[in-house]
From TrEMBL, chain A:
One Pfam family recorded for the sequence: Acyl-CoA_dh_M
Taxonomic placement: Bacteria, Bacillati, Actinomycetota, Actinomycetes, Micrococcales
Domain Acyl-CoA dehydrogenase/oxidase N-terminal: 21-132
Name of this chain's protein: glutaryl-CoA dehydrogenase (ETF)
Pathway recorded for this protein: Amino-acid metabolism; lysine degradation; Amino-acid metabolism; tryptophan metabolism
Record's signal peptide: none
Residue ranges of domain Acyl-CoA dehydrogenase/oxidase C-terminal in the record: 240-384
GO molecular function (one): glutaryl-CoA dehydrogenase activity
Flavoprotein found in the keyword field: yes
Species per Swiss-Prot/TrEMBL record: Glutamicibacter protophormiae
Cofactor: FAD
Entry similarity comment: Belongs to the acyl-CoA dehydrogenase family.
Keyword annotations from UniProtKB, A to Z: FAD, Flavoprotein, Oxidoreductase, Transit peptide
From TrEMBL, chain B:
Record-linked Pfam families: ETF
Electron transfer flavoprotein alpha/beta-subunit N-terminal domain span: 22-212
Name the record gives this protein: Electron transfer flavoprotein subunit beta
Source species, domain of life: Bacteria
Subunit structure: Heterodimer of an alpha and a beta subunit.
């Protein structure tokens, strides 16, 4: 399929596709087709009704999207670049849908994959890859956001068992998940626990109403004397590097995803500007509009180049972690600006759900906040440049 | 069971369609895509394979080198192997010459079932599947909206204006599928990777035993004309008399 199957992206001024292999292009086209047929026609309704379409989960699984960058256990075993390309296409549909794939694959599954026992992997990964079990990832707490080391959730040893008490907040999909990876303080530092959500004492309540990520669910989790067997702990990791190793995966996906949302907003604005007549000529014919479109396209091209560069290094095993902050900070910041600028081209029509840019911009408020806020990534890079950590 | 599926690469209908000066579809004027109806034909075959893993699907196309991309997509969707009839001598083939070449390629495959789309989105002749059946001396059923194959019998239903006709034939047989057959699946990631390793056999006219007489086009496009541009219609503003004016207009156009 490769070259011929593809309609060239109108934002692509640099022949970006020449940097991709035919398999990468084929995978992107497959996800793009899926998004065009299954997400774009329905997203306005899902967004307005504030529903996450659970029925789409098995469809995503069939394609190979869940845990796609993990190998074995029913996962597709694809590269970081391919994972990124898929993320960009999903987020061109809606950030909420890409977020689900990210929470499932990069957070919940990768926690078990990286840090779990063989039994935990065998039990959970195949059904999570197949979309039969949704996973969530509990790190953030009501009073512990950017500083997760201050978390209050505590796991107490009781004989062979662990007993968890505490609360988590902003946990994606926690009320529909079958399994939760919960991070908690213990006497030996922060540990991760694989918690079946049917365990007594686990309660997840959706946070409503939201002005962003409406087609996705974020929850508050209460943990009251949640008793788990000794085998529930993730045996391979202690300390914050456990959750951070997963967050880095999710942050990487955002570098691509945010640009997918931006590209969609750009395409909508471009098309609208070519059709909408004011003073007897299309908006696209005005210098002010062209300036906006060009500025948007330049940042989209640069954003995708950055994403690809980071992805290639990730695949080669040569990525420095601060580079993920470069990508996440830059691409979220530019994407939200692009979506807002796209909205201005749409005029009043831009504030309706008939057009995607404002929906994307609103979603990106969440995307720039989760997995490390703009401020946190700025300070990570400030530390890198100056050698002085400003957050301690 | 062996199933052969005919695949066609066509200019993307999302964009404008153009003809070259000699009346052929201008393949460079727009993106090339696998014809959606042939994707649906493949889907019908893949459903058979879903139910019975031993089903072997060969996708067959005739077209220029670039048509390989359509075959690769079909392989990534789940077909097992591909045959690409490709020869400059075959460029410009009309429906009959195309059917002759494809029939030759198909005759070597010993397929129990040959599945095609009912008509392509470029030429829209809708005659090649029946011609192939005739050339191979096989029964032809189509266009089918449903398909069932068991015990050497192929069954399906054909919808028309007044109802549906149930059709049945023994295999081997040629069928064409209508749009009602259902949407095609998306290539799965594992399928995309696997497609790279699946075999594509390229066959030229000589290998197929085709002589100049076989692939000479029986008809020639002498001229083509673009559809006239749409003109503004008659606007009737209702100030209480619209019904009379509408009726008068329809009568004047001899529509009532």
């Amino acid at each position: 399929m490769a070259l011929a199957e593809r309609v060239l992206d109108p934002a692509d001024l640099i022949n970006f596709d020449a940097l991709l292999t035919s398999e990468e292009l084929a995978l992107r086209d497959s996800v793009r087709g899926f998004v065009n047929e299954n997400i774009k026609p329905n997203i306005a309704r899902w967004y307005e009704d504030a529903v996450f379409p659970l029925e789409i989960v098995p469809e995503m699984a069939k394609l190979g999207l869940l845990g796609m960058h993990l190998d074995g256990y029913g996962c597709a075993g694809r590269s970081a670049v391919e994972y990124g390309l898929a993320g960009a296409e999903l987020e061109a549909g809606d950030s909420g849908l890409r977020t689900f794939v990210s929470v499932q694959g990069s957070l919940a599954m990768s926690a078990i994959y990286k840090h779990g026992s063989e039994e935990q992997k065998q039990e959970w990964l195949p059904q999570m890859a197949a979309g039969e079990a949704i996973g969530c990832f509990g790190l953030t707490e009501p009073t512990a956001g950017s500083d997760p080391s201050s978390m209050k959730t505590f796991a107490r040893r009781d004989g062979d068992d662990w007993v968890l008490n505490g609360s988590k907040r902003w946990i994606g999909l926690a009320n529909v998940a079958k399994v939760a990876v919960i991070w908690a303080q213990t006497d030996e530092g922060i540990r991760g626990f694989v918690v079946p959500t049917s365990t007594p004492g686990y309660k997840a309540t959706p946070i409503e109403p939201k002005l962003s990520m409406r087609a996705s669910i974020q929850c508050e989790i209460e943990l009251v004397d949640v008793r788990l067997p000794g085998s529930a702990v993730l045996p391979e990791v202690k300390g914050l590097k456990g959750p951070f190793s997963c967050l880095n995966e999710a942050r990487y996906g955002i570098i691509w995803g945010s640009m997918g949302a931006a590209r969609d907003a750009f395409e909508v604005a471009l098309k609208y500007s070519q059709e909408r007549l004011q003073f007897d000529k299309p908006l696209a014919g005005y210098q002010l509009t062209q300036q906006k479109l060009v500025d948007m396209a330049l940042e989209i091209n640069k954003g995708f180049l950055l994403a690809l560069h980071i992805g290639r290094q990730k695949d080669a095993g040569t990525l420095d972690l601060h580079q993920i902050s470069v990508g996440k900070l830059n691409n979220c910041r530019e994407a939200i600006e692009i979506c807002r600028e796209a909205r201005t081209i749409l005029g009043g029509n831009g504030i309706t759900l008939d057009y995607s840019p404002l929906r994307h911009a609103n979603n990106l408020e969440s995307v720039r906040t989760y997995e490390g806020t703009d401020e946190v990534h700025t300070l990570i890079l400030g530390n890198k440049l100056t050698g002085v950590p400003a957050f301690r | 069971m062996k199933i052969a599926v005919l695949i066609k690469q066509v200019p993307d209908t999302e964009e404008g369609r153009h003809l070259t000066s000699d009346g052929r579809a201008d393949r460079d004027a727009s993106d090339r895509v696998i014809d959606e109806i042939t994707e649906r034909a493949l889907e019908a075959a893949l459903k058979q394979k879903d139910a019975d893993k031993s089903v072997e699907i060969t996708v067959v196309t005739m077209g220029p080198a670039a048509a390989n991309e359509a075959l690769r997509k079909a392989l990534s969707m789940g077909a097992d192997k591909a045959v690409h009839v490709q020869d400059d001598a075959l460029a410009g083939s009309d429906a009959l010459a195309t059917a002759r070449a494809l029939a030759q390629a198909l005759s070597g495959l010993q397929a129990d079932l040959i599945v095609a789309g009912n008509e392509s989105t470029d030429g829209r002749g809708g005659v090649v599947p029946a011609m192939i059946a005739e050339l191979l001396n096989l029964p032809f059923l189509g266009p089918l909206g449903t398909l069932e194959v068991s015990g050497g019998i192929v069954r399906g239903s054909r919808a028309d204006a007044s109802g549906t006709t149930a059709l049945r034939a023994s295999t081997p047989a040629v069928i064409s599928v209508a749009e009602a057959m259902g949407e095609a699946r998306f290539p799965k990631f594992k399928g995309i990777l696997a497609a790279k390793r699946k075999p594509v056999a390229v066959q030229g006219a000589a290998e197929l035993g085709l002589g100049a007489a076989d692939h000479a086009a029986g008809n020639l496009v002498l001229a083509s004309a673009a559809r006239p541009a749409r003109t503004a219609g008659v606007k009737i503003i209702d100030e209480g008399q619209a019904a009379q004016e509408l009726a008068a207009y329809l009568a004047a156009e001899k529509l009532i």
